[in-house]
Amino acid sequence: MIGAKSVTSALLLVVVSALALGFGATPAKLAELGAVEAFAVGFFALLVGGFLFRYFRLHRRSTYYLRHSVDELPWGDESHFLGTEHRRILVGENRGDAYDFSPRIHYLIYVALAAWTALLTLDSRAIAALRALPEDLAAQGSEYCPELRSPSPTAANTQEEPGCALIRRAYELGYVKNLGPCAAITETARLESCTLRQHDEPILHYAWRRLVLFETAARAETSSERFAESKADFERRLDHLPELFEANRFTVASAARASHHIFTNLPNPGGWLSRAHGPALDNRDCETRYRRLPSRLESTSASRHLEHVVAQLLFDTRYAPAVGSCRELTIHWDSPPDICDRLVKSPLEVLDDAGALGEVRNVLERYRVTAELQEVLPAAEGMSKLSGILRSVTRQRFVSFGCYIEEERASPQFAVRELTLEGQRFTAPEARVPIADSDDAHKYVASMLVPSFHYGNLLSEASSGDPLAAGVDAKFFTGQYGYLSRLDYLKDVDIFLGHDWIEERPDLMEVYPYHVHLGNYVATFRSRYRAERGRL
Amino acid sequence: MNVVALLVSLIAADHYSPDARAIYISSALEAIEDADKKTLADASNYISAMDRNRCRSAFRRLRAQCLIDAAARNCKSLPADKREPCAIYLDIVVTNTLAEQQMLSEAERHAIMEKNRDYKSALRLELQRRYGSLAAGFRLSKYYSCGAGSANRACLAAAIDGYCRDQADQQTLAWQHCAAALVWFIATSRES
User: Fold this and answer.
1) How far, rounded to the nearest angstrom, does the alpha carbon of residue A411 sit from its chain's CA centroid?
2) Distance (Å, rounded) from C-alpha A490 to C-alpha A508?
3) Is A268 within 8 Å of A303 (Cβ atoms)?
4) From edge to edge, which strands make up the β-sheet containing A79-83?
5) Exposed, middle or buried: residue A252 (CB in 10 Å: 0-12, 13-18, 19+)?
6) Are A485 and B87 an interchain contact pair (Cβ–Cβ within 8 Å)?
7) A425 sits in which H/E element
8) Which of the residues A185, A455, B15, B139 has an alpha carbon 20 to 30 A from that of B87?
9) What element of type H or E holds A66?
10) DSSP secondary structure letter of residue A526
C-alpha cells in the first residue's frame, strides 16, 4: 500500500525530470545561465514549490492509497483502479497504514519539479529579459530625456580634413586672413523642451506632471470648441458620404491611379493566349519583366521592339526610377491605321471597343472624388500622391492616349490630335513612322509619349562641347595602336543624336556603351515625362 | 601568336567583328604571359605617369588620344620583334587606366587614399581585387567552358568576348574595360 500523494509526486518527478533533461536542462543551456538567471530559477522553484506543497496539503497523509493485487479479492471498501481482473491496482481509503513520503521529501520533490519546469520554459529570450530585469526595475518604467551634450568646437575633425594642414599653416604664417572651411565648427545646440522624465526627477513629480498633462489634454478634447469642430467635421463628412464611400472603394479595390493607352497597328506579339485574354494577361507580371531589360534586342519583331522601347523609356529601373506603373499602360495591338482619326471622332466607341473605357472612367472619377474631398476635408490630402496640389493638376496628366503607326513612308510624321471625353479635352499624339526603322524607335516613341521632348547635344553625355569640334567618326576606330583603348571614343558617339555611320557598323554596335547613352537618354526623357504625366 | 590573322583582322572593314575581337584578346593574353614582370610593371608605371602628367585633361577624348600616342611612341623605340607585343600589352594597360574611374568611384578612391599612407599600392591592390571579382564571375558564367593550358587560349578569348558583351548589356561596364581587366588578371595570374 502506498499513499496516492506519494505515487503522484514520484510519477510527476520522473516525467518532468525526463522532459527537462531531454529538452530544457541541456549542458549548453545550463552553461548559458548566469548568476541572475540561476537566482531567478531558484527563487521561482522555492516560491512555486512551497505554494504547491501547501495548496495540495502535502504535509498531511494521503486520503487514499493504491495497492497492487494479483488474483486476490478486494478488501472491504477498495475499488478497481487500473489493470485486469487478475492483475490490478486497487484504490482504497487510507486509515494511516499506507506508506507515504515524509513532508520534507514531498517539499523537496515539488521544489525540484518547479525548478525543472523553470528550466524547461526558460528560452534565450526569457534569459535576456531576466538579465535586463535589474535595469528595467531601476528604470521604473519611465522614458528619460536624452542627455544634453555640451556644444564644443570640432577642431579635432577639421584637422583630418584633406588640405586643411596647408591652409592652417598658411593662416599661421599670415598668408590668409581666415581658415575658411577648415575653421573649427561649433555645433549649434538645438533648443527643444523635453517633456519626458528628467534623469534626476523623482518618480512622484514625474507622475504629477503626467497627470497634469493628461488633465490638460482631456480638457482640450472635451471643450466646446473641440466639440463644435468635431461636429462640423462630421457634418462635412456626412454631406460627402458618397464621395467618401467611393474613395474607400478605390483604395480597397486597388483601382488604377492612371490610365495610359497606346494604339498601334502592329500585331500582338503575345501569341493566341494573349490575344484571347487581352492586355490583362500581359500586364500581370510586367513589373518583373520590365525591371531590367537588355540594352537592345537582336532580331526581334517590330511589336516586341516597340514594347521593349516603351518599357525602357518608362519602367526599366536600371537607369532611373520608373515613372509609373506598367499595369496602368496598355498597348492596343492590331489597331487600324486610322485609329487616331476614329479616336478623335468617337472616343467613347473606340475606347469601349478596346476595353479601356471602364478604366478611363474609373480614373477620371477617382480624380473627381479625390479633388472634391480635398476641397472640404484636410485629411483627404493623403488620398493622392500629389497631396494638396492635385487640384491644380489637369486630368490629362493621369489619362493619356497615343497612336504609333508603322507604314510605308519615307520619313516619320508627328501630329497632336485633340479629342473630348466626358466633357474634358485630351490630346492624342500620333507618330506615323517608316516600317523597320527600329534604329530611331526610341526617338519616335519618346516624341509620341511627350511631344515636347527634345534631345540634343547639350543634353548628351557625349562631350560635344569640347575643343575638338569635329565629331568622332569611323576613322577613329582604325589604326595599328590602341585596338581596345580606341573604343573609349564610343562614349563620344551618342546614337540618339543620329550618327548614321555607326548604325552601318554592326561590329561597333556590338560593343557600344549603351549604359552611357541609353541611360542618359532614358533619365532625360523621364524627367520630362514626369512633368507631364503621373499617377493620382 | 597568329600575327597574320591579327593583321588581317585589323585591316578588315569589320574591324571589331567577334572573330577579330577574339583574335586580339588571344594575342593580348599571349603578349602579357610572355612579357616578364618587370617589363609589365614599367609599362604600367609609364602609362600611369603619362596619365597623371602630360595626358591629364578634362576632355576624355584628348586624354585617351594622348595615352594611345604615348603607348605607340614607347613601343616604336623597341626592337622590331618586340614592337607588336608591346603595342598589345600597352593597349591593355591604357584601357585599364581609362577604366579606373569606372572600376573605382571617386568616393572609394578618396576613402582608400585617406586610410592608407602608401595609397598607390592600396589603389592597385583594390583594383586587382575588383579584377579578381570580375574574373570569378567570368569563371562561373555560362561562357567559360575551356580547359586549362595555353592550347585553349582561343577558347578563353572567345569566352571573354562573350562574357564582356553580356556585361556591357546587363551591367554598366564597357566591353573593352571588362575585356582588358579580365585579360590582365588572367594573364598576370598565370604568370605568377
Assistant:
1) 46
2) 9
3) yes
4) A2-3, A64-70, A87-93, A79-83
5) exposed
6) no
7) strand A424-434
8) B139
9) strand A64-70
10) H
Shortest Cα distance from B89 to chain A (angstroms)? 10
Those residues with Cβ within 8 angstroms of residue A332's Cβ, 6 or more apart along the chain or in another chain: A261, A262, A263, A264, A279, A339, A354, A356
Global confidence as pTM = 0.66
The one-letter code for the residue type at A398 is F
Residue A416 β-bridge partners: A429
| Chain B contact probe: residue of A488, A490, A492 with most B CBs at under 10 A | A488
ipTM: 0.88
Distance CA A496, CA A221 (A): 63
Please tell me the number of Cα atoms within 13 Å of A75 on its side-chain side. 13
Q: Cβ distance A428 to A419 under 8 Å?
A: yes
pLDDT digits (tens, 9 = 90+) for A335-354: 999 999 999 999 999 999 99
Judged by DSSP in three states, A332 sits in strand
Which among A485, A505, A507 has the least Cβ separation from residue B67?
A485
What's the Cα-to-Cα distance from A159 to each of A156, A176, B106, B113, rounded to whole Å? 5, 17, 22, 16
Quick one: CA torsion of A195, A197, A201, A207, rounded to 10 degrees?
90
Range with the poorest average pLDDT among A123-137, A191-205, B107-121, B169-183: A123-137
Q: With beta carbons less than 8 A apart as the criterion, state whether A67 and A92 touch.
A: yes
Q: Which 3 state secondary structure label does DSSP give A5?
A: helix
